[in-house]
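Let's sit down with a protein and look at its sequence and fold side by side. Which protein we use is up to you, so please pick one and set it down. Label the sequence line and the structure token line clearly, so we can match residues to local backbone shapes. Go ahead whenever you are ready, and we will take it from there:

***
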Amino acid sequence: MQKLLFTLLLATVTGAAVAQSGKTEVLWLGQAAFRITTPGGKVIMIDPWMRTNPKTPAQFKELHSVGKIDLILVTHAHFDHFADAPDLAKMHDAPMYGPAGLGTTVGTLGILPAKLAPRFGKGGTIMPFGPQGVKITATRAEHSSELVWKNPATSKNEAHPGGEPVGYVIELENGFRIYHSGDTGIFGDMALIGELYKPDLLLLPIGGHFTMGPEDAALATNRYFKARFVVPMHYGTFPILAGKPEEYIKALGNSRTRVIVMQPGEKVEF
């Protein structure tokens, strides 16, 4: 497995110097699934879908292969973002945060106990590891979020409310900020996300059809954010997700944001 290494020297954030206290590791597992290991050693899984993900490498198909997990974030209820979250939550006794409506549905259907499906909504901020730890804010996303659940009593699929889709801004212990947009189309209020939270790293979909394609993602990157880095995601998993990184890079033009094109199973450190 190729390991990409980038050293990020944090500059000033809102006028105050932020000293880097350690490294942040980002592992991409295909589609929108990422494992983030923070400088303080906390492990956050986002949109875990590995077991049936055609892009997830074989060594990560078993859930135990990702190691310990402290917290899970789900951006919306679609299977390619939610499928492995409940089992990982139970395996590690780790809370699964997602849209508030999704937490309610998951608890009502008995998929997870209430303590593992806490409710959380757009504009809300949590500090799950204490006041000096990671800060996570839920943001707007333009998508849908129905949960398809097989009723064990009837063996039939049912559609249930999954809450409104979200993205997340994750501020780590050293001030490094990651914006995982979730599945989303481009929208003008991305400008507010850029202005308010000033992410250093963007994780943006480029596949098209259900989300931004390369051109929209490039416009969002250049117009709404001043991020140092961007990792394209949510492309190539299925033929319909036809956007390609080279198309995104071409559309970016002479951008100030450095594109990191990862392969599923690769890690990058900041």
Q: What stands out?
A: The chain has six helices and 18 strands.
